[in-house]
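pasting for ref. prot 1 ->
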Amino acid sequence: MIPVGRIEDLPEGESLRIEAGDGHAAIAVFHSEGAFYAIDDTCSHQDASLSEGWLEGCYVECPLHAALFDLRSGMPTCLPARKPVRTHAVTVVDGMLYVHPLVPAVQEEAVA
């Protein structure tokens, strides 16, 4: 569990980036439509921070090439992104926001 901060520190319509550490990628946390969402921060199309994207409802638009991702599933809804980003569970306990990151993906070694 990664503490993010108090819920009032992330106003509706805003996002922030947290460093997960321990081999995890950075995570973008969003507050939209009364709910909190967390996805991997890096766009699956190219190296851009989704926490710096444009938030509309349950979707975030990548600031680099306008790929659109569903915050609930991590699925891209348009090109150029084709691969989803991972989603992470978010909980609120006593006014504190926590992200539960998924286990980091195992890196496959290139076979020569």
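and prot 2 ->
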Amino acid sequence: MSDNWVVQNLQNALDTWNAKLGEIWTLVSTSPQDFKGGGIWTVIENINTAVQGIGLALLVLFFVVGMIKTCGSFAELKKPEHALKLFVRFVLAKAAITYGMELMLSLFTIVQGTISTIMTAVGFKTANQSVLPDEMVTAIEDCGFWESIPLWAVTLIGGLFITVMSFIMIMSVYSRFFKLYMYTALAPIPLSTFAGEPSQNVGKSFIKSYCAVCLEGAVIVLACIIFSLFASSPPVVDADASVVTQVWAYIGELLFNMLVLVGSIKMSDRIIREMMGL
């Protein structure tokens, strides 16, 4: 690395960005069971098991309420077809609560397969890294003391923005895992609403919302791929312009691309919900 402070400051900011981008590339292909060594998943499994008791109690409540609302009179329950329909609904709702975690993991696995297909199709093993052009490094190193003063301000501001966006980006990806864990831990409660026909929309909305959280990973991967394609063609540096102008133009275009990536990741939930009509 160059001994120039301006170059070091910019490169350190880019190294932070590249490290977080590489971490995201790894996280989107990681399952909740393997995240952080799997310790969190063990706790979530225990919570899900404990909440199943509440879900089963609500199952009976929603079933009785649904039966009362859908049956005009108890005489209808004597009809075999109606009684069979209620029985099948009850059994399926019970199975959804008991095997809800397996169901959710199956949905997650399907989405992860889609994400893996996308990553394989583009041929990226990792996201492309952002680096300072050699000609810019040379131009900065050739600056005198007084010329480098404006560069300090530019690089301080640019480096700060790059570092802040790096952490905002990685926090957005971590929040996806938090949502996956919360959905899984409390799943028996919304799944119990399938027991009653009037309340089944709650369960359907829960499944759709969970699928939307899983699909956020696909949007994140696509956003990283698009940014990597931009990063593979760095901004053109005008060799005839002043060094301050060169650095400012480079950082400005780089920050714009980074801002688009961070914005896409932040809005991944909204994008998927709009696609699914939620």
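Residues 145-185 form the longest helix (41 residues).
The mean pLDDT is 78.
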